[in-house]
Structure formats: C-alpha cells, structure tokens
Amino acid sequence: MTLLRILPSWHVPESRITTEAAFLHRRAFLRRGAALAASSIVAPSLLAACGETEAALFQDPAGAASRPALRALEAKRNAKYVVEGAFTPESVSSRYNNFYEFTTDKGLVWKLAERMKTSPWSVEIAGEAKRTGVFDVEDLMKALPLEERAYRFRCVEAWAMTVPWIGIPMKAFLDWADPRGDATHVRFVSFLDPKNAPGQQPGSGSTWPYYEGLRLDEAANELALLAVGIYGHVLPPQHGAPIRVITPWKYGFKSAKSVVRIEFVKAQPKTFWNDAAPREYGFLANVEPDVPHPRWSQATETDIGTGERRPTLPYNGYGALVAGMYPKKGG
Ligand SMILES: Nc1nc2c(c(=O)[nH]1)N[C@H]1C(S)=C(S)[C@@H](COP(=O)(O)O)O[C@H]1N2
Ligand SMILES: [Mo]
C-alpha cells in the first residue's frame, strides 16, 4: 500500500493533530475495558481483529474483481465555483477516507467498503414536507438537476482536498420536497448494516446509524449538494455512495454519507459527533481558523494531494456565499 509514501509527515503523531477516531477508540475503551478494546476495531490490527466480519465481507470468492467499473456520470460543470490549484488526484482522495461504519483506518476504508451494495438504494423523505415517501436514488437523479462542482473540502482533522463532485443542488431538492412552514432543520441519516459494516458491530462505542443535520437556510444555500458522483462517475462506496451530503464551508463530519433518510424536523436535531464528542464543535461546525479544536489548532491545514501545509480559510474560502447566514460569529 503506497499510502504511507503519499502521506506527508504531519500524519504521524509528532504533530498535535490526532484523528477524530481517537474519540471513538477512547469511548470503546471506557465501555468495554482494556481487554476487550484490544480486540476492537482499533487500528492497526484491524484484519486480525475482525475475524468474523472478514468472513462475512469477503464471502464473494471473486473478490474485488467482481465489482463493475464505476458508471460514468455526465453533468455540466458549474463555472461559478472555481478553486485555485489542481484537483487532488483520485488515487489519493479515494484511498484516504473517513467512514467509521467500516473502520477508523482511513487507508483501509476503500477496501472494506468495496463490495457494499449501493444499488438499488432508496431514500426515505419524511417529516414536515409535502413530498414524503420512499424514492429510489436513480429516480431522484432523473427528477432533479445534476451539476458538477469543483469544491474545496476540509476535515476537522486539518486535512483538505479539492475534488469535482457531481450532485443535486440541495436547493433544488428542497424546492421539490417542499418543506412545510414549521420545518426548521433537515436531518440526514446514514445506512445501518452491521453485518457488512464492521464498525457498526456491537462494542464500537458509537450509536449507529450516523446522523447529521443542517438548518433549513443552510441546506438551501447554493453551495449545499446531495452528491451522487465524483471525478465524472458515480460515487465509489468509500465516498458515501450512492448519495451523500456536501457542505464545503463546514467541517467534513457534517456531510453524512450513504444517506437513507432525509427528515424535515421542527427543532435542531442531535448529531453523531456532537453526541460522541460534546467538547468539540457545535451543531454549525463551520470552518473557522481561529477556533481551535480542544486538542489542535485549526490555523493551518494539509492538502492530502500535494502535502502542502497552508493557512485555513474562514468558511473554507466560501465566506462570500455563506457568512451572511451567521450574523453572530460562531461555528
Ligand atoms: N456515515 C458517515 N458519514 C461520514 C463519516 C462517517 O464516518 N460516516 N465521516 C465524515 C467525515 S469525518 C469526513 S471528513 C467525511 C469524509 O469524506 P470522504 O471520505 O469522502 O473524503 O465524511 C463524513 N461523513
Ligand atoms: Mo472529518
């Protein structure tokens, strides 16, 4: 695996950066005791640790080779959204993922998620909206417009990338679903499948499925996307196939992957990370260089493509389009 060579030295614990995963590990330790935790999903002994899971995941004897190539997806790039610099090579961004349903080891997510069944896939639209029900993702993609958007992406762990997503502008989705006047927030829930997602097995220290949310005005912001593709093809499982949220001015954990339920609600919903780590960022979780994480600074970030360390931009560079939503500074 070439990842260690690609990744710059900031990845090793010499820096103050530590991963979001550390919290999950700590929680697992607390709940299960050291003896059990030693055999939990804690990397690096993942393969040894997940004996049973491995059997379930790899029962397809043809293995990875049986997965068809990712279907091409055509969508016109929206020229309004330009990003300085090159795209992060797909070989890097598709091998460095946070998707705790599978593992907290970023370099192994793609492998463990490889045979996740992402089609057919239905999304339930529920709550305070005029159009509710169960919809196939393919039907949503036909009913609603698709655009390609070049966006910066910033994880709370201080790594960053630039990729071309293809997605349904969330505003178009909202207009279509038509939330009722009393809806204030929209909630996104990821899939639940402990048989195939080793990180969801009992003892992971988290409450699955993953759940996130946005204020309705944030969801209606022109930047918000329901992404279904990347680099000109449908999303691969590790990026949250077949449909995931993208909000580029916020930390990456706001962008729930592999969404199965979108619910319009009347109050601010609880969210996975805020519940797991209440001392970290609040519900908004906007990118703010001068608001440090309890354990590291957010003043700079590392581009996972180039290894370059550079200043973090307020709202990840999208202030002109989003700052007006936050009259009181905070995130
Ligand atoms: N369901 C789910 N969604 C998730 C996560 C996760 O663990 N599970 N991780 C989040 C975090 S912390 C980040 S940084 C991004 C990573 O997206 P990427 O792997 O496509 O770059 O997904 C977010 N969405
Ligand atoms: Mo993240």
Question: What does this entry look like structurally?
Answer:
The protein is an alpha+beta fold. It has helices spanning 3-6, 21-37, 46-49, 51-57, 90-93, 109-113, 137-143, 170-177, 216-219, 272-276, 319-322, and strands spanning 122-127, 133-136, 147-154, 159-169, 185-190, 211-215, 225-230, 233-234, 244-246, 259-265, 300-303, 309-311. The longest helix has 17 residues, at 21-37. Strand 7 (225-230) and strand 8 form a beta hairpin. It is globular and about 45 Å long. Mean pLDDT is 85; it is low at 1-18 and 29-65. The strands form two sheets. Strands 3, 4, 7, 8, 9, 11 and 12 form a seven-stranded mixed beta sheet that branches. A five-stranded mixed beta sheet has the order 2-1-10-5-6. The two termini are 37 Å apart. It has eleven helices and twelve strands. Bound molecules: the ligand Nc1nc2c(c(=O)[nH]1)N[C@H]1C(S)=C(S)[C@@H](COP(=O)(O)O)O[C@H]1N2 and molybdenum atom (MO).
Draw up the topology in text.
Blueprint: H1 3-6, H2 21-37, H3 46-49, H4 51-57, H5 90-93, H6 109-113, E1 122-127, E2 133-136, H7 137-143, E3 147-154, E4 159-169, H8 170-177, E5 185-190, E6 211-215, H9 216-219, E7 225-230, E8 233-234, E9 244-246, E10 259-265, H10 272-276, E11 300-303, E12 309-311, H11 319-322
Parallel strand pairs: 1-10, 4-11
Antiparallel strand pairs: 1-2, 3-4, 4-7, 5-6, 5-10, 7-8, 7-9, 11-12
The structure holds the ligand Nc1nc2c(c(=O)[nH]1)N[C@H]1C(S)=C(S)[C@@H](COP(=O)(O)O)O[C@H]1N2 and molybdenum atom.
The site of molybdenum atom has 7 residues, from loops.
